[in-house]
Amino acid sequence: xxxxxxxxxxxxxxxxxxxxxxxxxxxxxxxxxxxxxxxxxxxxxxxxxxxxxxxxxxxxxxxxxxxxxxxxxxxxxxxxxxxxxxxxxxxxxxxxxxxxxxxxxxxxxxxxxxxxxxxxxxxxxxxxxxxxxxxxxxxxxxxxxxxxxxxxxxxxxxxxxxxxxxxxxxxxxxxxxxxxxxxxxxxxxxxxxxx
Length: 195
Fold this sequence. Notes:
By secondary structure, the protein is of the alpha+beta class.
């Protein structure tokens, strides 16, 4: 019940109970409360936070909105069982002996150029790829019910870091999930593997 209705109801009850005190003795006080509330809305108020649009991949993009000429890169190598942030980038200069095995890339989000020897061509994972110890890349920004899911559109795929980690548990594959280093649950359809 809106607060204005509560205030009016309280005032009516107070006046109704106080009236007999001024009118003399009363054997019985009857209070009738009408609970009928009529409320019409011309149009619903638009949400300030509309739902995220789900976009179908176009052109040469795969199901994660990654193009065939793009790589995942990291400035640091994956050490031990830890996970690392990786980003989508395009190769500017291939690795060579002259560059000590490093390739030059341009970050697809910021447009910054950098050299690294940590880069991978990837593809969406298949069920056969999902084994304990396999290094995988997953979209690591948002989790729904504590499970990381795939990006829903190109903007999400490019504006947020992805994560590189190893699979540590596959016992929830029947639910469409695996666990990766850091005890993170990841939806199978959001996982990429190295080619």
